[in-house]
Structure formats: C-alpha cells, structure tokens
Fold Branched-chain-amino-acid aminotransferase.
Amino acid sequence: MTIEIDWNNLGFNYMNLPFRYISHFKDGVWDNGELTRNNQLIISEASPALHYGQQGFEGLKAYRRKDGGIQLFRPNENAKRLQRTAMKLRMPQVPVDKFIDAVTQVVMANENFVPPYGSGATLYLRPLLIGVGDIIGVAPAREYLFTVFAMPVGSYFKDGLYPAPFVITRDYDRAAPLGTGGAKVGGNYASSLEAEVKAKEASYADAIYLDPSTHTKIEEVGAANFFGITYDGEFITPKSPSILPSITKYSLLYLAEHRLGLKATEGDIFVNELDKFAEAGACGTAAIITPISRIDDGEKAYYFGSEKVVSPLTQKIYDELLGIQFGDVEAPENWVYRI
Ligand code: PLP
Ligand code: COI
C-alpha cells in the first residue's frame, strides 16, 4: 500500500487506519478479541454508555526509535488506570495482559502508520471500554465492548512546543469534589466542552479549571495536567482527587527530581500564588508538554517566561521525556515496552 502522509504536519485528527481491535464481554467473561477492518460499532440504542455515560477510555502512544523499532511508553500504567476507571463505573476490568496484547496487535497491524523517527509524530492509541446492551434503567450494563484504535498524530495544541496562553475558567467545573474527575470517563470531557469552546473562541489554547470546592487552586487543563517551576527551581504539580492521575505528570515529577535535580512536589497550587512560577506548562500524552506563556484570570494576567521561546527547565525536562519515549535516553526501569 502506498501511504502519502505529511508526517510533519499531522495535528491531532482521527484517521481510519486499516485495523482496530475489538473484544466483547458477555455472561461474565471476555472473549479472545480480534482485529477488524470495520471502524463502525453497532450497539443497542439502549446502551448505558450512550445514555448514562458508562464508559471509560485511555490514551497512549507508540514511538518509532532511531533503529527503526517501535516502543510504547508505560503501557502498564494505562492498563491499570483503565482498571481503576472500570471499578469506579462498575464495569468489568480488562486484564493488564489483554490490554497490552490488544495495543500491541493494533500497532503491529498498522505498522506502516507509525511515523518515522525524527518527524516528532507518533502513533496515538485510543483504548475504549463501553457498557452496551438493552438496559434503559440507570444500572451497570451486563455486556461490554473493549476496542483499541489508532492514528498517527503530531501536536495536540496547535503550535506544539511553543508557549501558548491559557485562561482560568470560574464559570465551569470539569468535575465535582467527590465525582469522577479522577477517572478517565467521557462525562468529565462533556462538562468541559462549553468552557473549552469559549476559551478557544477567545484565542486561548484551552481553559484551566479550579478546584470545585473553593475555586482557589489550579486543578488541570481540559485535556492535560498542569505544572509550574518556581524561581528557586521547585517543580510542582497539583494534587487533587478530582484531577486525572496523569502518567506524564508522574513521569515528569520523577524526572524533575532524579534527572534534573529539582525539588519535585505534588501539592496545592493556589491561583493567588501563581507569581512564584518562572515557568509553567500543560502536560499529557496528547499535549506532551505545552509551555504556558500566560494565564489570564479575569482582569489579572500571570506571565511565565518568554512568549516566544521555551523556558530552559521546561525545555530540559521535555528533552529528557521525549528522549526516553523515542529510545534515545536511558529509561527508568519498566518505562518503555518494546514491540
Ligand atoms: N488530564 C486530562 C483531563 C487529560 O485528558 C489527560 C490526557 O490523558 C491528562 C490529564 C494527561 O494524562 P496522561 O499524562 O496520562 O496522558
Ligand atoms: C490524552 O492525552 O491521551 C488524552 O486523552 C487527551 C485527550 C482528551 C485528547
């Protein structure tokens, strides 16, 4: 097959690749799962995933190494997070081995779509678990589908590794204090859509949410976590039960401490203390690291380094993370999974 893809200008867009994986859960057991060319799901109109949001998903990437090989970044962590999401929404767990096998099959079957080393692009994988079947009362489904599909992607935020402005929203919460914010479920994104559209209309990269109880602390960005680096070199990310436990964020906390020699803390980030940060960024699988140039909060604006150049520690931690992900820098134990 001839593939004509401009690997350097992909953005973050769906592409109907030749193969995806699908497995069914019925009568209390998962079937073996298989690859299929069909990108359509046929499910009952009454499926709980459609009406009551009984679903969860994941996001991870396959990276092309310089030697031509392919590797995943911490896929076990995505598998375990999907299990926690499943527990929260009373769905059956996908065993870790099944998750990794499914992802591996999809990468191998679509190998021609894993972008070349050096393009900066990757193959994004989207595992999805949904409750299906004929249930119209509010109750967990008895049948489930687990699928994994993939697409080559570049930057999620339009300019990639280039400082971008964000805006604090005080009109919307993405999650409730004791809600599902810590799980990767569609409902959290449904409640972020209005704020996100408004933020983008006002030329921001995205909205930043505050803690839903007091609206005094940074929680996270609509599609990524948040970090700040203080003038005296402390790397801080928010700690809250209503934000997504981001695999990138925990990786950066580790790298900040063990590779950059910074103090690394997961703690409260009060909006009225944002001035203590020399650098700030959004981080996640899709977002990678997007430097934050400015955060607007009503009439107030907070600035973080240059609006045109990536700040030095952000660049350093970005190089370390991507070096590991693409196989150029030695990874901490079990961080990469060779396919
Ligand atoms: N927060 C939200 C709301 C996200 O959608 C994502 C993306 O997955 C993240 C944070 C980052 O999580 P991870 O680093 O595991 O991709
Ligand atoms: C990811 O980074 O994998 C995400 O899930 C973010 C997304 C909502 C595009």
